[in-house]
Amino acid sequence: MTELLIDNIRALDPGRGEIASALLIREGRIAAFDPPPPQTQHISRVDGGGRLLTPGLIDVHTHGIEQFSFEAGPDVLAKGIGRLGRYGVTSVLPTLYRVMEPKKLDELAALATALDRCRGTHVPGFHLEGPFLALPGAGAATLNGDVALLDEIIAAANGRVASMSISPDTPQIVPVIEQLAERGIVVFITHTRATAEQTQLAIDAGACHATHFYDVFPIPEETEPGVRPVGVVETVLADPQVSVDFIADGVHVHPTAILAALAAKGYEGVMLITDANIGAGMPDGLYETAWGYPVKIQAGNAARIHQPTAPNHGHLAGSCLTMDLGMSNLLNWLPGTPEQIWQLGTSNPARLMTWHNKGTLRPGADADLVMWDVDPNHDHRLLAHRTWVAGTCVFERNGVDALNRSCGDS
Q1: Domains plus CATH for the chain?
Q2: SS3 152
Q3: Looking at the whole model, is its pTM more than 0.85?
Q4: pLDDT tens-digit profile of 237-252?
Q5: Which secondary structure element, helix H or strand E, spans residue 49, and what is its range?
Q6: Which of the residues 252, 264, 272, 372 has the least number of beta carbons within 10 Å of its own beta carbon?
Q7: Which of 280, 272, 279, 281 is nearest to 294 (CA)?
Q8: How far apart are CA 367 and CA 315, in angstroms?
Q9: β pairing state of 243-247 and 270-273
Q10: 323-333 vs 255-265: helix axis angle to the nearest 10?
């Protein structure tokens, strides 16, 4: 039985801090910390060079990476998933946007066939952004709640639906939420101008998380001069049962908005996502989405619809954020300790999705790990040096993907 020793590291467990200078991996799991010197030749070794090592990042809302739009087809989905390790991602919910409509369920079924052949990142299932939404955003379906259609969607996805985003103000949505909760599918709130009462009904039915918070959450109209209206945002912030996530690119939300959520939820109730579109991690340019329009990617900006003759030209269409950059931004923006801030990209999403062996450095946890470099050109920018999923190295920063290798030095 081959084991892997990673030593000369600063192993940080989110929520606890730096806990060890070495760890041992056995059969894809963390076996021990600071073990005694190896007594067998069957142990491979990696010298971390004093680098930081954390659990891998978990992205529960993302539509694409580089030139791969996850909704474009099974092969594209599988290839895109295989690229995520270079950004420190070890678990992901590829997010689908339009293939849940009745006429497109065959496309959803085809995409589901790709999940079992995805390599390089743990993919427990899909996040479906819709179709039971009240506001379209960049073009999502806005169908009334329909339990029969929900059953068809889950069947088409071969049961591989891990989470679904809904709007509390969608007609007939409460039975849908109840059915999702009964099936163990995590219910996200988004694309909504719901009232406080509608939002509370959704939470009581089983909605427990709000995704790309503040974005496509319009401010309620003021009906009484001098009286601030209250709606979905205030209700979510006030309810301790509900967590939230943010696109930490500096475009979708101001860092102060994230600080406000931290004041309400604490560091355990806030998470990082990318909501990335095709083009994330790529040079500036135009990239064709799976939804019939190109997006323009520009450094320091987001993904924006590029249709000069269309009324929504220039509108936001997701982000061009990668998880490593989002984590770097949070570490620079937020006042908490590193062990608090790392929770937003690791242990918090794992807890939301009830993935008990993810997002933590504890004996018995999955060896989904990232060893980090600091970008020599940007002091505050983290770059994955090596990434392991279940103890297998899937990326090392030497220009070569490392799927199916141990990445041991000996």
Answers
A1: 3-55+359-405 (2.30.40.10), 57-352 (3.20.20.140)
A2: helix
A3: yes
A4: 999 999 999 999 999 9
A5: strand 43-55
A6: 264
A7: 279
A8: 40
A9: parallel
A10: 80
